Structure formats: C-alpha cells, structure tokens
Amino acid sequence: MVAGAALIACDMAQPVAAVKTPRARPTDLAETQLRPTSEASAALRSYLVQVQAAQLNQGLLREDGGGPDTPFTADMLARNFERIVFFNEYAQALQGRGGESPLRRWDAPVRVGIVFGQSVPPSQRASDGAAIRSYARRLGQISGHPISTFGNPNFIVIVASEDDRSDALDTAAARVPGITPESLNALRSLSRDTYCAVAAYAAGSDANTYTAAVAIIRAENPSLLRLSCIHEEMAQGLGLANDSRDARPSIFNDDDEFALLTKHDALLLKMLYDPRLEAGMSAAEAAPITRIIARELKSGPL
To answer: What is the model's pLDDT at position 90?
Structure first.
C-alpha cells in the first residue's frame, strides 16, 4: 500500500439470529450497458436480504438516532470519542485488531465522488447517488468542515457488486492522485460477511492528515443495509476510525443496533473537527480538551 494508507473500517454482518437528485455529474460513472448478474452475486444478494430481515426482526438497524432509552453523559461521550478516534479498527487488510493511533482527520476540503459498478441498475444509482450527496452535505454541516460533491474527487464512494468491484476500484484509483490500484487490493476480495469498508490515505507530508479515501459498498446489500453502510463508511473515512462495544447510541458499534448516524455520533464528528484539537495529537494530549468540548456539547441542544 502507498505510504500513509490505512484500512480503517468495515461493517461486517453479525450471525444471522432531503435534496432532489441532480443530473449526472462527471464524478458519476454512468454505464449505459448493464453487466449480467452472476450466480455468486445473486446468491450473495439473497444472503444479505436474509441478514437484514433477521436484524430487523431482532429490533436492530434502528433509524431513530437514539432516544430516551439511550441516554449518555458528557463523560461517556468523551470516553467513546477516545476509543473511536484514537484506535484503528483493523491493523491491515481487514485482519487483526488495530492499535492506538494519533488523531487523524482531513485538512483540505473533502470532495465526494461516486462510482457505480456496471451491474448496478439506473434506479439504484439514482437512489444511492441521492443518499450519498445528501449525506455528504449533512456531514459538512455537522463537522463544519467543507464537504461537497463537486470538483475533482478525493473521497470516492463505490457502489458495486461482486462481479464489478475490481473494475470500479481501478476506476477510483485512476481518479484520485496518490492512490494506485495496488493500494486498494485489500478491498478487492471481501468475505461474505463484510458488506462495506473504507480505506483512508495520508499521502502528503503529514501522516496524520488524510488526503484521500475510498469506500466500497456492496451493491447486493438491500436498501437499508446499503444506507447504513453509506452512513458508517463515509463518517469513518473522515476520521471516526474505530468501533466500540460501549458506544451507544452509535453506528460505531458492531452490534448493529443503529443503522444511521445518531445524535451521539454527530457530536463525535463535531468534536473531531473542533479547532481546539489538532491532527497528530495523542489520546493523552487531547483528553483534557475533549472533556471540555463534550461538556459544552452536552449542555446545548441535541
């Protein structure tokens, strides 16, 4: 992988127990010829439909953002921030638990581009494209960091199937400086239970400042799982890199209780891009500041 590359997050299946859609932009891959679906892709789609149904039957994949049943204090918010920001979910190539890490985030404006695999039908492209653009705007509003879907992209969101993921990754590598096809190899072969992932890169002079990211969303996911993947991977690609079993209400928790960015998660993102924090800070250096910010945020409206 290129220097500074880090596979920072993925969403893995647990055991089965508002804007108008704009016209196509140069950052969208709009193929006129759909690729036929393979048996492997069709079988994966069937499996993921069962995963979503099982999770919904268990009361998971909540879309309410948290409520009276999920209270959290300023101290809890600060502790969750430390665990999610200062640790990596994976060591490398979706293998092993990641270790402690300095604070990492973007300095330059984030420009989101979308790449669709050739097997993704027009109706899904329209709905997923609208969701990605709307969410990018929301992330910018929450964080206060410039995030747009215009210009030359440095954060590519890929929606592709098992059949065309590799081609879509090659397309992403060709569009973003500092990313090579080889640097994306960890995203080419995903296990059946991994239904999305993101890799972030720090290709500049500062190893703690992200300069590019690529998120991969399985097109075979049913609609809510796809939207859940969009929410988690785009947020994690901004620097909320880890999951924590103690974080609640949160999408940064492998229990899949919540499908969409929660009130708690929005506060984490605000904290991450607070100007009082700096890329490269250790958890110990940031702790006194994050406790102050958490108290400030919890004293205001959610």
So the answer is: 56
